[in-house]
Amino acid sequence: MSFAQAFTVGSTVVQMKQQSAIGKYNQQIANRNALIAEQEAGQINQQAEFDIARFDQKFKQSEGTVKVALAKSGVAFSGTAKRIQEANQLEAEMQNKITKYNADVGIAKKMQEAQFSRIQGQVARNAARLANIQTVAKAGTSLLQMSNFGSSTLYQTSNTVGPNGRFGRI
Known about the structure:
The protein is mostly helical and 170 residues long. The protein has one domain (3-169): Helix Hairpins (Orthogonal Bundle). The chain is 82% helix and 4% strand. α1 (3-73) runs antiparallel to α2. The two termini are 29 Å apart.
């Protein structure tokens, strides 16, 4: 094996290791991004639960204030006062459902980001594998060319006149 061939083999091995390391690193980054997106989805859910609990607390406090004010003024809790309370309760339910829906949409987006990040990581890893294959192919081509240095074809033939006077291969 000549120095050039040994150098080609050595540089090919180094390049393949670097390509593999880059592919693994990019996949690790993508997986980390996926984990972060999943954690953010969990935070969105926790924030929604907190917001709903806080809204319910404020609503009950407001509802109690209205009941006390009605009782102080001597208004009977029927008719218009009851309809207003029912409308407010429906509005509160609607607000809670909207908050939960928005949280669910946010969670779905984050989970989709996580899945996309994992796919990107797999693509990066596969790109590194493809680069390895290309590197090996190029090295193989270079080694084949080095081993046939000076010849234009792999098998050298010539047409000459044979001993019987006919043309043929030697």
